[in-house]
Write a structure and sequence with these properties.
mainly alpha, globular, 107 residues
């Protein structure tokens, strides 16, 4: 809700804290992937793609390791493709977008 209300700095801090707690505990890859995915959306939406891209890619690696839901994987692949396209890397965006379509068909 904070992210949607334009309070990204506070939201970003909360996602970073959640991720830190999950990494310190015995969290599953899936439970670590979700805050990474959400954390990437702020920098992506605020023109900080170099920060967002590695977060999305890390989230995807964790999702594959844990067989995360197809819906979540589709959302993350789509976010990666959209971000790549937004920064002028459209040819590179095709593969993530194809993966998003593939996972959407499974969900």
């Amino acid at each position: 809700l904070w992210r949607d209300a334009g309070r990204w700095p506070e939201t970003e801090d909360l996602f970073r804290d959640a991720l830190r707690l999950k990494e310190d505990g015995a969290a599953t890859p899936r439970s670590r992937a979700e805050p990474l995915d959400e954390l990437a959306r702020g920098p992506r939406d605020h023109g900080r793609w170099p920060e967002a891209e590695p977060l999305l890619r890390s989230s995807l690696r964790l999702q594959v390791d844990d067989a995360t839901s197809p819906h979540r994987q589709a959302m993350t692949w789509e976010a990666l493709g959209a971000g790549l396209a937004r920064v002028g890397r459209s040819p590179e965006a095709e593969q993530p977008r194809a993966e998003a379509r593939r996972f959407r068909e499974r969900s």
